[in-house]
Amino acid sequence: MCIAMLIDDGVCPTELAVTNEDETQMLTEFWSTIYPTDVLVGHNVLEFDIPFIRQRSWIHSIRPSRVIDTRRFYTVDVQDTMQIWTNWGFKKGVSLDALSAALGCGQKIGHGMDVAGWWAMRDLRSIREYCLQDCWIAYQVYCRLTYQQPRTRKSQPEAETATISVTKQNTPVAPKRHRGRRPNFSPIGRPA
Question: How many CA atoms lie within 13 A of 39 on its CB side?
Answer without folding.
Answer: 16
